[in-house]
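Sample A.
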Amino acid sequence: MSNPNRKIALGLSAFTLLPVGTLVTFFPASLYALNGRVLDPSAAMMSEIRAPGVFILLAGVLALCGLFRQALEGPALLASAGLLLSYGIGRLISLPLDGLPPVSLLVAMGIEVCLGTWCAVLYADRVKLSGQFA
């Protein structure tokens, strides 16, 4: 039986990851411009930007699938937690090394850490209750 909190967390993950992944993959210059950054339009730079965008997009698809298929709920929570926490922790590490980014990136960091932690806690609770790691 699925916990409603898991569905809410996966819905928020999908709502967050799908648009961000889509923007990074297909419209990176527009997304980066929102934070005052201008991307080098070289093929090498665009390849480096778009590659993690597809990963974010696929994690969003998995989160969406986890909403509707209980068999995918565990993997979706784990993927959401891993991706969101890796971005959030990366931004935290960047603060003392690089200084304060724009407010929009600080908000993103807060969302990533909070939602990622929630997904991790829900995943751990699911494993504890079911005894299964998937």
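Sample B, a different protein:
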Amino acid sequence: MVVGMSDDYRDPSGNTEAFRAFAAREQAPAPSATPAAPATNRMPLLIGGVVVAVVVVIVLVLALS
């Protein structure tokens, strides 16, 4: 004997209206309690990268000559 599923289906995710309210709340920007951090200056990082690249090239030239 095969017993069928009951016709009383309940959505496991809950109420559609509650989900829509949750989704709307997630999309809205949250008020920030702390001010945003100022943009950092990347110039020292760029200069450091160039210096490292130059040193690596010099070491390679000296090692291969």
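Observation for Sample B: Residues 20 and 26 are 10 Å apart (CA to CA).
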